[in-house]
Amino acid sequence: QVQLVESGGGLVQPGGSLRLSCAASGSISSLIAMGWYRQAPGRQRESVAEITGGDYTDYADSVKGRFTISRDNAKNTVYLQMNSLKAEDTAVYYCFVDVQYRPRPAFRTWGRGTQVTVSS
After folding, report:
1. What does the pLDDT look like over 51-72, one tens digit per residue?
2. Structure confidence at residue 99 as a pLDDT band (50, 70, 90)
3. What mean pLDDT is predicted for residues 12-18?
4. Percent of the chain topping pLDDT 70
5. Residue 81: partners with Cβ closer than 8 Å, 6 or more residues away
6. HEC string for the chain
């Protein structure tokens, strides 16, 4: 089973930057995608960014131009560089990985989440 370990969350002032990391361990037969969701109190969980096994990236409109997702294949680690942070970015950020153990269908594994707070 795949396990995810997240790090990099914390408190930052508006306009500041943070970099989140998510390291995957365990058996991975085929990597479909890795990425990030976030959830603020009282709000629905939303997709932030993802990167596929073919290195295609996708971002939520609210973070385009400010966030960058990347991956280190050797370390099985995905990163989220967060710049120009706003108060509305405050949320718990959850890493995910989609893997497939052939010939079974792909499934998703979640990290425990890391808190990002943007406040002056």
Report:
1. 998 999 999 999 999 999 999 9
2. very high
3. 98
4. 98
5. 17, 19, 67, 68, 69, 70
6. CCEEEEECCEEECCCCCEEEEEEEECCCCEEEEEEEEEECCCCCCEEEEEEECCCCEEECCCCCCCEEEEEEHHHCEEEEEECCCCHHHCEEEEEEEEEECCCCCCEEEECCCEEEEECC
